[in-house]
Amino acid sequence: MRVLPVMVKDTLARQCHAIDDGRFDSYADTFTSDAVFDNRLTGEVMIGRAAIVHSARVHRANRDDQGVWIRHYMFGTRLGDSTHQRAVSRAVSTTLILRSGPGLLATVQCEDDLVEDSGVLRVAYRTVRPCWS
Q: Average pLDDT, stretch 112-128?
């Protein structure tokens, strides 16, 4: 499968829409079953779809309890080669995370190893860090 930039952007867009809309099954489907999500902002390292989705649900519930909504906007996606054996593409994106109330919550960098899995791209490994690190 030849990976085109539009395919990576489509995967990341589907992921942003799914998490923002609370469609956790759709969000889970954008990761491989054994994906690793290394969140350097919170110190969490989640392994596997179930752990990733559990964390997303907990964060969403906490925000809902506080009356806060969040929207993710990925832009500036760059593609490059990967040394990860299964990866077909590495993408680095900037994500603007907006919230209700005071506005900007964070600007982070997501570095993803994406793999072809059952004919679609999925994130196999994600590292999230502040843009200023």
A: 88
